[in-house]
Design a protein that fits this description.
Blueprint (H helix, E strand, L loop, with lengths): L1 E8 L9 H16 L9 E8 L11 E8 L4 E8 L8 H29 L6 H21 L1
Parallel strand pairs: 1-2, 2-4
Antiparallel strand pairs: 3-4
Length: 147
């Protein structure tokens, strides 16, 4: 499966400056991990992550927004938002919170994908999906623990 992760920063930087380079590493980890995940119904998975500053204020807090499945294109698109009020400016706390939150959003999103694909009578291997998330989470935690 091809996985794209777009990041949208907005406004004043409340989050630790360490998060910006970490997000680039996270993007690579997720893309590399999900290349092994195959599903006949989804060939492209697009996530837009909104966090920090004004951009996150357009949503009602941390959560999953606008999940959409396009059957003809075999694409799934979703937006994740992390509320700007959650950042402490402390590198370690912000990184740990980010990993925890992105992992939970990805897991909850798996259930949304499962339900959306069921409407089109497609199967979705939620266990393999969650296994990929576990791999990503472990790799992200390893990066944090190295710093």
């Amino acid at each position: 499966m091809e996985f794209t992760l777009n990041i949208v920063y907005g406004g004043e930087l409340n989050v630790s400056k360490a998060l910006s380079p970490f997000v680039r590493n996270m993007r690579k980890i997720i893309k590399d991990t999900f290349t092994s995940f195959e599903n006949e119904a989804v060939t492209l998975f697009k996530v837009t992550l909104f966090f920090n500053g004004d951009i996150s204020s357009y949503y009602n807090g941390t959560g999953i927004y606008q999940p959409r499945y396009y059957n003809v294109k075999k694409e799934y698109m979703v937006s994740f938002c992390i509320d700007r009020t959650q950042w402490t400016g402390n590198k370690k706390k912000d990184l740990n919170y980010f990993i925890f939150t992105i992992t939970n959003l990805m897991i909850k999103n798996g259930d949304l994908i499962l339900n959306k694909l069921a409407k089109y009578q497609y199967a979705f291997d939620i266990n393999s999906y969650k296994h990929c998330i576990d791999i990503c989470s472990k790799k992200m935690n390893e990066i944090v623990n190295e710093t």
